[in-house]
């Protein structure tokens, strides 16, 4: 088998062998340890692969999702319901002080009273922590437990953190000073739980789809011959997956009103109950999942191999064959084979695409932080300021079906390519529009009375005379940018990662969000009036420039997309008789 890395960077796609038989991928079911072939995924409907000419001339289509993928999507929906319904209230929870017993002052709900900068700092830290911890989840999954058991484990951790948050947000707990320490402990535990889940649930849903090679199919109703394209199915899986994420995030339609009229504790309790239901679905649906086994010391071996690459300034240096050639007569023991190093090189190709993402995540993070505070500076007309966040998921829920059922199919019929690199670059540009619009809204706020440049002054505690609805397009732009940048990032992390490193590469993608949160944390001192307007302008310029640089740097990968997606086609999942990596040391 040729080197995956060589194929990934080849300028000219290799010719396909039309006579090559379709590989039957063997999957290990964690439930009973038995090998089995997934019916209808291992064989092509018409018994053969398309030729190069057929790939170019025939229409490409995606397949429907298996039931097990929908079950994973439901679990993610419940988790995101909890995460957004809970964290969407954090800005107000930390920002404003606790209401007096008579409930008259302050007018809006709060708990910890740490002010704008204190709230933005803690919320940004929580976001940072949630995207550092996926590395822990990836190591546990890829080396020890597998994705499914790891998700179950971290669901338990998540539940503990939620319980602490509920108990310490009760009125009596807040009155006795338990609010701040309880909040800090809970966000640390919840962040660990959500990180362990996030690095595994995205690859787990795509694992449920087993086809690796393109296949011919004749549509019975029309007689049209088409090409079933696994890459398009993975794209559809992550579009639906992201749609479920945003359905779950509509919890913010309910929790702000619970916060306002009942108390934060009731909103957090709702989130706890929803997450418990999602955990129950995960446990009860266990027999339906296709689960890949852990790969042993995959992560630690990867870092050892990376050190050998750096030390020798050669990416092939960790290969046993390279060691044998350059250290003739020496005894060299390595716990991997050449193929493992080829996989690692391929993972590095995938990871470097994520280098530009931190700037995008700084922009994305504004919708749950500074946008909430901005909404509080306008006349809400009875609408809670943190309710406006729902326009982000609503826009995603509206536009995903439009793209998936109308725009993308038309583009494919017209043979207009819309590859991941192009979609990601477009996502950066749309995010820049969101920031520019937010800057315009901030300018309108400063231009309106009664407080003008000092919103929420004593003369206008309900905000300046600007209707809160004017903020809506900023959230819509953020949502559209997510469909292009975030969904495509999830897709890229899965399709370009080797089978043995899916969770690890996913954690590297999520880690870029942590870097984005760190940058946002550094920008916290600028989160005051009137400097915040110029911060929005700066983020708009940075996002737009990053989109251009990203496209210029990686556009060549668009032309190698099919080759990289096909690398797993002849690479069956390891089993006891045919391990992927060398389990015994190599002596040379």
From TrEMBL:
<feature type="region of interest" description="Disordered">
    <location>
        <begin position="568"/>
        <end position="588"/>
    </location>
</feature>
<keyword id="KW-0472">Membrane</keyword>
<keyword id="KW-0813">Transport</keyword>
<feature type="transmembrane region" description="Helical">
    <location>
        <begin position="507"/>
        <end position="528"/>
    </location>
</feature>
<dbReference type="InterPro" id="IPR000109">
    <property type="entry name" value="POT_fam"/>
</dbReference>
<dbReference type="GO" id="GO:0071916">
    <property type="term" value="F:dipeptide transmembrane transporter activity"/>
</dbReference>
<feature type="transmembrane region" description="Helical">
    <location>
        <begin position="182"/>
        <end position="206"/>
    </location>
</feature>
<feature type="compositionally biased region" description="Basic and acidic residues">
    <location>
        <begin position="575"/>
        <end position="588"/>
    </location>
</feature>
<comment type="similarity">
    <text>Belongs to the major facilitator superfamily. Proton-dependent oligopeptide transporter (POT/PTR) (TC 2.A.17) family.</text>
</comment>
<protein>
    <submittedName>
        <fullName>Proton-dependent oligopeptide transporter family protein</fullName>
    </submittedName>
</protein>
<feature type="transmembrane region" description="Helical">
    <location>
        <begin position="423"/>
        <end position="446"/>
    </location>
</feature>
<feature type="transmembrane region" description="Helical">
    <location>
        <begin position="534"/>
        <end position="554"/>
    </location>
</feature>
<feature type="transmembrane region" description="Helical">
    <location>
        <begin position="264"/>
        <end position="285"/>
    </location>
</feature>
<feature type="compositionally biased region" description="Basic and acidic residues">
    <location>
        <begin position="27"/>
        <end position="40"/>
    </location>
</feature>
<feature type="transmembrane region" description="Helical">
    <location>
        <begin position="394"/>
        <end position="411"/>
    </location>
</feature>
<keyword id="KW-0812">Transmembrane</keyword>
<feature type="transmembrane region" description="Helical">
    <location>
        <begin position="119"/>
        <end position="139"/>
    </location>
</feature>
<dbReference type="InterPro" id="IPR036259">
    <property type="entry name" value="MFS_trans_sf"/>
</dbReference>
<feature type="region of interest" description="Disordered">
    <location>
        <begin position="1"/>
        <end position="54"/>
    </location>
</feature>
<feature type="transmembrane region" description="Helical">
    <location>
        <begin position="237"/>
        <end position="258"/>
    </location>
</feature>
<feature type="transmembrane region" description="Helical">
    <location>
        <begin position="151"/>
        <end position="170"/>
    </location>
</feature>
<dbReference type="GO" id="GO:0005886">
    <property type="term" value="C:plasma membrane"/>
</dbReference>
<dbReference type="Pfam" id="PF00854">
    <property type="entry name" value="PTR2"/>
</dbReference>
<keyword id="KW-1133">Transmembrane helix</keyword>
<feature type="transmembrane region" description="Helical">
    <location>
        <begin position="347"/>
        <end position="364"/>
    </location>
</feature>
<feature type="transmembrane region" description="Helical">
    <location>
        <begin position="474"/>
        <end position="495"/>
    </location>
</feature>
């Amino acid at each position: 088998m040729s080197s995956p890395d060589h194929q990934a960077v080849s300028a000219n796609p290799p010719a396909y062998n039309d006579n090559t038989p379709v590989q039957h991928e063997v999957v290990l079911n964690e439930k009973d340890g038995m090998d089995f072939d997934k019916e209808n995924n291992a064989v092509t409907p018409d018994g053969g692969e398309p030729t190069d000419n057929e790939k170019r001339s025939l229409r490409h289509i995606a397949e429907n999702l298996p039931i097990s993928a929908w079950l994973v999507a439901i679990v993610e929906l419940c988790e995101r319901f909890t995460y957004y319904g809970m964290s969407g209230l954090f800005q107000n929870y930390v920002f404003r002080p606790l209401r007096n017993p008579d409930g008259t002052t302050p007018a809006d709900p709060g708990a910890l009273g740490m002010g704008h900068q204190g709230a933005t700092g803690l919320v940004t830290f929580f976001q940072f922590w949630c995207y550092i911890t996926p590395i822990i989840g990836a190591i546990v999954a890829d080396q020890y437990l597998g994705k499914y058991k790891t998700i179950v484990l971290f669901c338990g951790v998540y539940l503990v953190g939620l319980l602490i948050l509920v108990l310490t947000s009760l009125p009596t707990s807040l009155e006795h000073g338990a609010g701040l320490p309880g909040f800090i402990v809970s966000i640390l535990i919840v962040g660990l739980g959500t990180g362990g889940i996030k690095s595994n649930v995205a690859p787990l849903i795509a694992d449920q789809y087993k086809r690796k090679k393109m296949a011919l199919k004749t549509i019975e109703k029309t007689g049209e011959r088409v090409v079933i394209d696994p890459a398009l199915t993975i794209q559809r899986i992550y579009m639906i997956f992201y749609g479920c994420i945003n359905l779950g995030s509509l919890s913010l339609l309910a929790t702000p009103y619970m916060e306002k009229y009942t108390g934060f504790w009731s909103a957090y309790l709702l989130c706890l109950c929803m997450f418990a239901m999602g955990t129950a679905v995960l446990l009860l649906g266990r027999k339906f999942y296709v689960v890949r086994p852990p790969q042993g010391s995959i992560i630690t071996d990867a870092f050892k191999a990376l050190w050998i690459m750096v030390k020798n300034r050669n990416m092939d240096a960790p290969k046993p064959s390279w060691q044998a050639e350059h250290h003739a007569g020496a005894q060299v023991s390595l716990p991997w084979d050449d193929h493992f190093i080829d996989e690692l090189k391929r993972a590095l190709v995938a990871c470097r695409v994520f280098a530009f993402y931190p700037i995008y995540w700084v922009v994305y993070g504004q919708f749950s932080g500074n946008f909430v505070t901005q909404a509080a500076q306008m006349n809400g007309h009875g609408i809670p300021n943190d309710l406006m966040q729902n326009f982000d998921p609503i826009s995603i829920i509206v536009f995903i079906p439009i793209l998936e059922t109308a725009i993308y199919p038309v583009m494919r019929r017209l043979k207009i390519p819309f590859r991941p690199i192009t979609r990601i670059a477009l996502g950066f540009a749309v995010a820049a529009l969101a920031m520019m619009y937010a800057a315009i809204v901030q300018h309108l706020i400063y231009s309106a009375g009664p407080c003008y440049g000092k919103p929420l002054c004593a003369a206008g505690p309900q905000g300046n005379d600007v209707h809160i609805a004017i903020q809506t397009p900023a959230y819509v732009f953020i949502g559209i940018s997510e469909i292009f940048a975030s969904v495509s990032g999830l897709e890229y992390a899965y399709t370009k990662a080797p089978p043995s490193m899916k969770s690890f590469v996913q954690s590297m993608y999520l880690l870029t969000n942590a870097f984005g949160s760190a940058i946002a944390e550094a920008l916290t001192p600028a989160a005051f009036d009137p400097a915040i307007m110029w911060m929005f302008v700066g983020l708009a310029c940075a996002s737009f420039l990053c989109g251009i640089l990203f496209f210029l740097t990686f556009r060549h990968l668009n032309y190698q997309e099919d080759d990289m997606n096909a690398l797993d086609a002849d690479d069956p999942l390891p089993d006891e008789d045919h391990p992927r990596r060398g389990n015994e040391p190599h002596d040379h």
